[in-house]
Sequence to fold (269 residues):
Amino acid sequence: FRNLVGALLATAAFAGTAPAQAAAIHDAGLFTNVLARNDDGSTGSIGLGFTINFFGNSFSNTFVNNNGNVTFTGPLGTFTPFNLLTTGTPMLAPFFADVDTRNGASDVVRYGTGMIGGRNVFGVNWINVGYFPSAADKLNSFQLIITDRSDTGAGNFDFQFNYDDINWETGSASGGSGGLGGSSARAGWSNGVAAAFELPGSAVNGALLDTGANALIASSLDSNILGQYNWQVRNGTVQPPNRTPEPGTLALLALGLLGAGAIRRKAVR
Fold:
């Protein structure tokens, strides 16, 4: 019931399979607005502080979703990560999985505007966050930075995924046990219509963890910093990396499909 309507060639690079300590996250205190402790919640429409052109659609607002992503056309409460290559939802998803911040040992999701390197940014921190149901025995730390690059053209922007610690991949309502297994996290982006990309290891049990074969903290994209993945969007289109990462890997064909994944609901807790 979904029709293939386009494809985008993107390149991803790995720094090997050995675990490494990343230090990619920008100042964790930069963003001070708080999404109160919750499970599957979202903010209302939040201003980016600038306007972006994402594949021909202009957005000046976003919705911060507890479950490791931001969306542009409405909030998203889905907790089991769906295939980003088959969704109709424009989104940036550094770590799409069942984040649950209700345990006091977990921090909350923080977001807001600021400046990095003299440029206006909108950022979201998922720093030391737990997983469903209210678990905090394992914590993840990751970040999204959207940077205004209108200096290079109207609507141009960069976005960046940063990872310092990935210790869990799944909530128990997604088939996981102790934060592991089941329908594992996905990381990537989609314009919701014709182009999308997932980092290698997405949806593969154990792959994105700090000790995994595709450990997010042990790889990078267009960056010399492990755990940092950079994309540039110019004239509405995500560009190939500026440099060939070392060591390189085969390019990945990221398919874009029409249609939205069904949103399931958790059992009453």
